[in-house]
Amino acid sequence: MPKGAKKGGHKGRMRTYTSPEEIDAQIKAEKEKSKVEDDEAERDEQAEPKSPHSGSEESDDEEYQQKRKGVEGLIDIENPNRVAQKSKKVSQLEVEGPRQLTRREREEIEKQKAKERYMKMHLAGKTEQAKADLARLAIIRKQREEAARKKEEERKAKEAAAAIPRGMQSLSLDK
User: Fold this and answer.
1) What is the 3-state secondary structure (H, E, C) of the chain?
2) Are 173 and 166 in contact (CB under 8 A)?
3) Is the separation of the CB atoms in 137 and 130 below 8 Å?
4) By the 8 A CB rule, do 84 and 60 touch?
5) CB neighbours of residue 64 within 10 Å
6) Residue closest to 84 by CA, chosen among 65, 64, 54, 70
7) Which residue has the higher pLDDT, 118 or 60?
8) Looking at residue 80, what is its pLDDT?
9) Is the pTM of this model over 0.85?
10) Confidence label for 155 from pLDDT (cuts 50, 70 and 90)
């Protein structure tokens, strides 16, 4: 047996799948739980009105205290460079002002506009490529017309050649 190979490893177990009914039940339970939590949060907010100046700094400090992990809880260090992350509400975001485009976005828009201009000029026959295409098409048309004319002449020549011997035979039979 190769190194590290074990009999009956965990990879050979049967897989178990969650049924759709169980998934639906879990989702429904989570929704109900979130509704209950939202209702409790609303009741708490209504019960304790906050003054406009109280709490923004205190709540950030409290959140920081709760988020401490590992040894941070034992050692109390004040970092002067730490900037508290403040979550912005949707109402605080600047939606009215026009957003500045990034260089890539600006270049992409310019590229699309240039492509549209080129296609317009190409369809109008003003670009070098369009002129070359039209010239090539004109040459092909002339060649096809000449080929059709030659074919028509050959067909008429064959008909004339086929008509002459018939006429000769009918003349020779009359005698």
Assistant:
1) CCCCCCCCCHHHCCCCCCCHHHHHHHHHHHHHHHHHHHHHHHHHHHHCCCCCCCCHHHHHHHHHHHHCCHHHHCCCCCCCCCCCCCCCCCCCCCCCCCCCCCHHHHHHHHHHHHHHHHHHHHHHCCCHHHHHHHHHHHHHHHHHHHHHHHHHHHHHHHHHHHHHHHHHHHHHHHC
2) no
3) no
4) yes
5) 13
6) 64
7) 118
8) 76
9) no
10) very high
Look up residue 97 and give its amino acid: G
Q: What tokens appear for 107 in the block? A: 């270049």
Tell the residue number behind the tokens 């026009």, with chain if given.
98
- Residue 128 token pair: 């070098």
Token output for 28: 């429904």
Place of tokens 């998934």: 23
Distances (CA, A) of 117 to 2, 113, 114, 123, 131: 67, 6, 5, 10, 16
**Which residue type does 86 have?**
K
For residue 20, give both structure tokens.
Answer: 């759709």
At 37, the amino acid letter reads: E
